[in-house]
Amino acid sequence: MTADVDTTFRNGPQRHFWAPGDQVLWRYRGNGTDEVHICRPVTVVRDDEELLAVWLAPGTRCVKPLLADGTPVYREPLATRYTKPRVAAEDKWWGAGVLKLARPGEPWSVWLFWDEGWRFRSWYVNLEEPLRRWSGGVDSEDHFLDISVHPNRSWQWRDEDEFAQAQADGLMPAATAAGVRRAGRQAVGVIRAWGPPFGDHWQDWRPDPAWPVPALPADWDRPAD
Hints:
By secondary structure, the chain is of the alpha+beta class. It has a single domain (23-204), classed as Beta Barrel (FomD barrel-like fold). The protein has helices at 78-81, 160-168, 174-193, and strands at 23-29, 36-47, 52-56, 61-67, 86-92, 98-102, 108-115, 119-128, 132-134, 137-149, 155-158.
């Protein structure tokens, strides 16, 4: 992993950018905690003042949360999904890869999904805390609410039930939830205007076949510097 970045993506002037092909970590902290519970090794596609783009390759070893009894989170009933104890577990990223795009300071990232044979499926707006850069990658906190955007430019809210449950379970204060909803409306404005990155033809992008699949480091949960 590259380890010479000492600035944040969210605050302050940018003094260093990763190069295409560099391998970094894209991580999420658990809500209401400083502990990392999602870690995805990715390859840098582009990194500059306007955009960070990374590629999550098929077959990448990642870390994701599971319930302490081994139940996948999505299979747990919503009423207890966020209250039962969890553990972090390694797993492989199944299916096609994902291209992730984030603009400095924006409280969301945009993910591109393809089906088999590079048939473009959709964009996914993941509402989240603005990315914080550190020496090994970027960190954020997921905000539950998301937006799905289709090739015909139609869109829909996603996971509104999870967003409501997270508030009911005390994982998101009312003021934070209001800010997330505002951010979602801002993202919808970008979608309706077909602003960046939706009109930038990223769906036609393809990864360099020479790029190796990044490895998951043993210290994937080390503190950000």
